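User: Here's a chain of 276 residues. Predict its fold as tokens.
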Amino acid sequence: MSDDIPAESDPRPSSAPLLGPLEDAEGASSELQSRVTGEEDELRSSLAALSQLASAHLALEETLTRIAEFAVAAIPGAEGAGLTLLESGHADTLVASAGFVEEVDAIQYGLGEGPCITAADEARTVRSGDLSRDPQWVRFGQRVAQLGVHSALSMPLLTHDGVLGAMNIYAHGTDVFDDRATLIGELFAVPAAIAVQNAQVLAQTRRLAANLQTALTTRATIDQAIGIVMSRVGCQSEEAFSRLRHTSQIEQRKLHDVAKRIVDEAVRAAHARHSQ
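Assistant: Prediction complete.
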């Protein structure tokens, strides 16, 4: 065969060009699966931590701060979170996981418009990928865009008793929160609402217990003072109490403070007599 005659080419197509795209597709799929798995792990971890808050003996503000921090860890793309609670129909941010969240929500409540207010008022999830162009809150969006914050996700905190408030999630980039982030946020908001309600009930119980203890202590001090006045003046308890109340009014001091002074003076006098 002459050297000038070209060799017959192999009719079988080469598999080399196909491996590259196939490997890229498999790599992308593996990366996506890894990301999804990581997000699920973060959600599980945050939910587990959330479930342990009830036994943590924390103050209300500290408990709410932990919930906000768990939300940031659980929701993909979140850079900061705040919790807004409704008190007598008025919305107010109690905690924020980052300083910029406090700035954003201060603008929101100052203007009376924003994603959190809408989420709480209408009991629905609110999402924005570009606050500077969102027609729902024109003034708010333009103001917070100057802070470099463009994405927001707000979920109402719903319980059987109604809407407690809202959980606000923010990020600086545009279109940060996709459908999956929204779904995870809504899943997290359900136990978060229960945790918030439990924290409120616990705080209220502590306040009632403290008030009761104060009332008992106050009553005991007043009763002691009445007894001292009765022994000094030789009067009945009603007259002794009237004398205490009159002194309280004249000196413009609380009845308990007047009673405590009388008791303290009597104790010092007794110590002085015993030391002689």
